[in-house]
Amino acid sequence: MAREPVTEAGSGSKICPRRHYHNMDPSALEPSLYTVKAIIILDNDGERLHAKYYDNAYPSTKEQRNFEKNIFSKTHKNDSEIAFLEGLTVIYKSSVDLYFYIVGNPQENELMLMTVLNCLFDSLSQMLRKNVEKKSLMENMDGVLLIMDEIVDGGVILESDPQQVIQKVNFRVDDTPLTEQSMAQQISRRLGVTNNVLQSAKD
């Protein structure tokens, strides 16, 4: 089935997702294990709630923040799910007052990046009892970080099944199922025990 053209971020023109590959170095099209360059979560004002970059494309915090402002300005009023920006492929999704972005190289398979985005969103939805919004996310940020680490490590996709992600995160935190106790409570309890042990050692 033919793919629908996509609107390039910042323009009204329709483009083929692969149009800009014709003049690229063939070596740049070789498959890479390091699929994800960044995972970014912004609020509906474009402010960073969490971002993790897996390479040095944007080495400083200032450069990262400028990139995040750029992608937000180009995508927050766009109904598309994909944008090409600064030579990168950006897959994104919004929910209430949150924006989720998966950033990859221009030659990366958009479907693979979309799989990562869907896994992240569905995993968070399970953890947050389908209440995927800013307040709930911020209250459970430790769980968010664990979920991200289970899905992507160093830019490499580790898991794409939300059920497996939740099971692994749950196993890392405690033996108690998520349905019996919130992940945030479990993590806080663990951190409290660790802090007590460290304090006892100091005393």
How would you sum up this structure, described in words?
With 203 residues, the protein is of the alpha+beta class. 40% of the residues lie in helices and 20% in strands. It has 6 helices and 9 strands. A hairpin with a 6-residue loop joins strand 1 and strand 2. The model is unreliable at 1-31, 176-180 and 193-198 (pLDDT under 50).
Number of helices: 6
Structural class: alpha+beta
What is the averaged pLDDT score?
Answer: 79
**Strand adjacency order, main sheet:** 4-3-7-6-5
Radius of gyration: 19 Å
Strand content: 15-25%
Helix content: 40-55%
| Helix and strand sequence | EEEEHEEEHHHEEHH
Low-confidence sequence ranges: 1-31, 176-180, 193-198
The span between the termini is 69 Å
* Beta-strand segment tally: 9
Shape: globular
Largest sheet: 5 strands, antiparallel
Using brief descriptors, characterize the structure shown:
single chain; 203 residues; alpha+beta; 5-stranded antiparallel sheet; 6 helices; 40% helix; disordered N terminus
